[in-house]
Amino acid sequence: MKIKVIRYISGSGRTTQSYLIAAKKRNGNEREYIVQFDPVHPAMYSVLKSGWTQNYVENFAWMVSFYPFNALLSLNQSGRFSPDSSMRYTRIELEQLMVEGVGEAIHDLMFRHDTVLLIAAAIRENLGKLYHRVLIRHAEAAGYHYHQAYRQEALYVLEKRKTPARRNRPAGNYPGTKLSPSLWPA
Questions:
Q1: H/E stretch holding 129
Q2: Edge to edge, what strands does the sheet with 2-8 contain?
Q3: H-helix or E-strand spanning residue 96
Q4: How far is CA 64 from CA 28, 48, 79, in A?
Q5: How confident is the model at residue 4 (pLDDT cuts 50, 70, 90)?
Q6: CA–CA gap between residue 32 and residue 22 (Å, rounded)
Q7: What is the pTM of this model?
Q8: For residue 81, which phi and psi values (nearest 5 degrees)?
Q9: Model confidence over 24-42: pLDDT tens digits?
Q10: Could you say which DSSP state residue 27 is in?
Q11: What local confidence, expressed as pLDDT, does residue 119 receive?
Q12: Reduced to 3 DSSP states, what percent helix, strand and coil does the chain have, rounded to the nearest 5?
């Protein structure tokens, strides 16, 4: 499966940061996804107060959303987070999409901004299991700390480490190298 990631201007808001992920399977199936980062909503401060100050969360934390691109154009905003089985991903392909696609977007956002804390909310149990599995396997090697204490709240919290990650990690098992200059050639 081929995965490409580019920055995307969605017009959702001045502070919103978006990335477009294109996935192309060997059988020719293609799908585009949006990874959207927004500042944490003030209602989240009370949930995170045991780990960080309000000032820290206001200035360095972002919420992550991930949904199919065509849902961005839908009038039904709740449809953004409906299950998408159109690509019939295997478990391995789904993990690859998360690591090489969403992981690349996370890595780029953290590199370009003062972002140190990312929060994803799982609205479905299987999505939460996927987030947990991917973060357990890949966060440390990529230079991030996964705060598992928030998992019971269906929140998946990733924090950038203050020290660099280990250098002896195998190639291809961590997010982030560089973004693709464009999506598929015409």
A1: helix 125-138
A2: 2-8, 17-24, 30-39, 61-68, 117-121, 155-160, 144-147
A3: helix 91-96
A4: 28, 15, 17
A5: very high
A6: 4
A7: 0.78
A8: -110, 20
A9: 999 999 999 999 999 998 8
A10: T
A11: 93
A12: 35, 25, 40
